[in-house]
Amino acid sequence: MIEKKSTKIRKITFWPAFILLFGSLVYSIVNKDGFYAMASAANTWVLDNLGWTYSLTSFLCLTTIAAAYFSPLGNVILGGKDAKPILSKTNWATITLCTAMAAGALFWGIVEPIYHMAAPPVGMEPNSWESAKFAMETMVLHWSIHPYSLYTLPVIAFAFAFFNMRKPFSVTSQLGVLTDKFHIKTEEKNVFPQILDTVLLFAMGLGILGVICTGTLNMGGALKEITGIQSKAAAWLIILGFVTVCFIVSSISGIHKGIKLLSNLNVAVYIVLLAIIFILGPTAFMIDGTVEAVGGTLSDLPAKLLTTGAYASDPWAKSWTVFYAGSWGSWAPISACFLARLGVGYKVKDLIKINFGIPIIFNIVWSGVFSNLAINYQLTGKLDLIHILNTEGAEATIYAIFREMPGAKIIVVLFFAALLLSMITAMDSTTNSIAALSTTGISPEEQEAPVFLKIMWGTIFAVLSYIMLTIAGIDGIKMVSNLGGLPNIFIIAGGIVCVLIIACNVDKYNLVDRKAESGEEDLEGETGNEKQSGRIGAEKEGSVIE
Question: Which of 502, 174, 145, 103 is nearest to 339 (CA)?
């Protein structure tokens, strides 16, 4: 029987991240313009001077994922040959999809292509069929291949290190091969992993604040469409209060009940909404446009991923593709700590299919329906969405489209439900990771962080988000959160190196299976904090949660 390890807060990780989050908020309140100017200048410098690292890392992630899939690493079972899954593949896929997709694709899936038609790269005529084709190809890149390359690589690196190398629950474990090579101590009590974790927690904390604020504003707009209630402080308070209560209930019930049920419901709403828009919209155009856009994207994929706009002095690439890489990079290493835990008992190949293959297919379908709907309305003149975007803003563009469709109220209600569920699942999964990184005692056999920590982080995010919405504004915080992509990109790059090294010599690094085959008590190279026996994932008596 495995003895449950005691848990306590990692002070060096928790308190600096919390103080930095609170300090950023105070600064943005005291000097809103100055804070935004500082964040904007720093972000511009990073994109101008180091943006190429984002593009190159994204491309290398894609190639490394392919190499891992077809290498011996792909056939390794996470947690060892005796490990048992804690989730069915269906539940695993829905949780992964909702965690990574969040509310971003809901909003930008409709609005972003209109931005690209209005202001395409240099040399392309705005509001033309060329800009429309480019916009759809860009949606395929930005919401499928690009983000999930950056998300999946850290998941592979962390999953193998945590389950098969017996590394501690820390972002540092994604660099396990390199830290071992250079004799860097990474146990929970050591300072280095705690400092690295607090930097990344701060970046992701800012990121989730931006997501919650944006999601609240979007839901406020949907609520106004449905009820006529103005999207102001009172409505935001109700929305955030309801989301927080739902999140707390989900957190208390854990991965196997709360997140699983919410994710299944969330995906069901996605599918119903997709089906309605697909049937009521320009169906043939959606299919034709998606097929052509996927072909165009795949035929020119390296160039699209590695574009920087250097030769044309065109800011488009840095404003979109490179900027997105920084934004996703600020999430990826910590999100990986949550997503990797779901794959215990399955092969690395399955991990890649669930975290990379299925989300890419789903998001191509999603963009194929919603993005092509907006593009079709603009191209045919049914609505002048570029004018609406320029005069009334992005949110107004979405509801202008919905109003043109039969059953507009039903569509808006479903859209509101999708936004709501997406934000709850995003808060739940994110705070799950942040809480786990803030405490000691997390292991393959005991993966849940203390409930009080998850509730505390979720409540902190909700309160800070409301203050930002009503007093400080969100632009500066969102800009700073994107800066978090810079240190994280180097973590991801290190993860690329580690995955390639492991793929070339799996037997050397697969300590769990070596230990099982040799019958040794311990093996050199283990971190020492996980000298455990029994089956990985056995906390649920080895049964798959259906």
Answer: 174
The DSSP secondary structure of 119-151, one letter per residue, reads S-STTS-TTSHHHHHHHHHHHHIIIIIHHHHHH
| CA atoms within 13 A of residue 275's CA, in its CB half-sphere | 6
Given a contact cutoff of 8 angstroms between Cβ atoms, the answer to whether 481 and 468 are in contact is no
- 97: CB partners within 8 A, 6+ apart: 263, 267, 358, 359, 362
Q: Kindly report the CATH class assigned to 12-519.
A: mainly alpha
Angle between helix axes 283-299 and 129-140 (nearest 10 degrees) is: 70
* 106 in Cβ contact with 415 (< 8 Å): yes
Q: Quote the CA–CA distance of 334 and 158 in Å, as a whole number.
A: 10
Residue 199: CB partners within 8 Å, gap ≥ 6? Answer: 487
| Amino acid identity, position 312 | A
Q: How far apart are CA 168 and CA 174, in angstroms?
A: 10
SS3 for 217-286 is: HHHHHHHHHHHCCCCCHHHHHHHHHHHHHHHHHHHHHCHHHHHHHHHHHHHHHHHHHHHHHHHHCCHHHH
User: Bridge partners of 9?
Assistant: 439
Token representation of residue 187:
């146990």
Say which residues have a Cβ less than 8 Å from residue 361's Cβ, sequence separation at least 6: 144
Largest CA distance in the chain: 72
Distance CA 290, CA 371 (A): 9
Cα 88 to Cα 70: distance, rounded to the nearest angstrom: 23
- Copy the structure tokens of residue 389: 């975007």
What does the pLDDT look like over 179-223, one tens digit per residue?
Answer: 999 988 877 677 888 888 888 888 778 777 877 888 888 888 888
Are the C-beta atoms of 458 and 427 separated by less than 8 Å? yes
Residue type, 55: S
Q: Is residue 37 helix, strand or coil?
A: helix
Q: Which of 97, 151, 105, 107 is nearest to 262 (CA)?
A: 97
- Give the pLDDT score at 534: 38
454 within 8 A of 432, measured Cβ to Cβ: yes
**Which amino acid, residue 114?**
I
Q: Residue 231: what pLDDT?
A: 85
